[in-house]
Amino acid sequence: MERISFENPLDTAQIIWSSKTTVHNVAADSYSILTKVQGRKTAFCSGRRATALVGGLFYLLGFRYNDVKKQIELARKLGTTEVTIRKSYREWLIGFPDLFVDVIGKLAQHESLRYFVLLDLKQKKPTSFGGILSFQKAPVKEW
After folding, report:
1. Which residues contact 20 (CB under 8 A, 6 or more apart)?
2. Is residue 143 part of a domain?
3. What phi and psi, each to the nearest 5 degrees, are found at residue 40?
4. How far apart are CA 4 and CA 12, in angstroms?
5. Domain containing 65 — which CATH number?
6. Which of 8, 23, 38, 43 has the highest local Cβ count within 10 Å?
7. Strands 133-137 and 124-129: what pairing?
8. What is the SS3 assignment for 36?
9. How many CB atoms lie within 10 A of CB 66?
C-alpha cells in the first residue's frame, strides 16, 4: 500500500478515481480546502492521520463532482475503516459547513443520507477545536 499524504492530493486521488477530470478536480479542491483549513483552524489537522483527513474529504468531494465512492471502497483503497471515513466527513461538515454548501444540498436530496447525516449534524455544533472536535448538543424544543 502506498503512503497517503495530503501534501500531494493528486497522487492520492489517482488511487481512488479513474476519471482524469475527477482526479484533477478532487486534487485541486483538496489542496485548496486543506490550505484554507490549516489557515483557519490549525488544530483540525493536528495529530490526525492523513488517511482519515483525506478519506472524509474525498467522500464529500465525490458528491461535489458526481463521482461518489462508497465508504467501504474508500476505506479499502486508503487503508482505513468505514467508521474512520464516516467520522471524518462528519467532522469536515461540522467544522467547515461553508466549504461544503453544495455537498450538503446533495446530501439532503439523498434518501439514505438525509437522516443519518443532516439530522445528526443539526443536533451538533462545534464548541472548541483543541486538537479534537468537541460537541455540545443543541437544546431540543419540546412540543
Report:
1. none
2. no
3. -90, -45
4. 6
5. 1.10.472.10
6. 23
7. antiparallel
8. helix
9. 8
